[in-house]
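Late entry, evening session. Most of the bench is empty. Finally got around to the prediction I had been postponing all week. Sequence below, unchanged from the version circulated by S.P.
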Amino acid sequence: MKITKKKLINHLRYTIVIYVLIVVLSIFLWDIVYTSTAYRAPENKKVEWYIGGNALANQEKLKEFMEETRINIMPDMEELSAVILFDSGMQDIYSDMQITTFVISEQGDVYLLTKDKFLNFARAGAFLPLDDYIENSSLNIDGIDVKRGIVTIPASESPTKTEITSIYGIPATSLKKLSQFDINPNDMYLAVLYKNKNDDNSVKFLNYLINTMQ
């Protein structure tokens, strides 16, 4: 068969397409294998801080802070990480969807959310009541008006099927040092996910956060 320039070009184009598909498929399969086989810290050995309302927060500085906190304050933990969520505003619908997905799938331990989002999710029973931790001094709230974090959960959303009024969030407005991470704490609230699988360490991290960032 005579090889013409046209046939050669078509052959090369076909070969390139096949090659690209093979490369893409290989990367995809490798990603699946890596994700499924990579070591993951147990739930009771990690704390994740999910940050909303601050899409421009400095990820690198947050990463450094979380690792320093793990080494110096919580050495029993294998992993402390910070995740920046979608900002509010134009992407508000996507932000709500993202947070809802995380809450339902029980991802994240400590959340920093805008007031509206905090109230919405707190009333839906998404967060851990903090009253006992404040009473036994696991949470030092000196200088913070925690009354603003009191929320009433209707019986229909309560795990006990009765109306519950508790402190579900810590107002973050006074945590001015969060600005070092390009986080604006004004009208924001810190809360602990109800089903976080690591209550004590999540509260310990929250306590450290509110007492070092004032």
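Two things to note before I forget:
DSSP finds six helices and seven strands in the chain.
The beta strands are 46-51, 79-84, 110-114, 150-153, 164-167, 170-171, 188-192.
Will write this up properly tomorrow.
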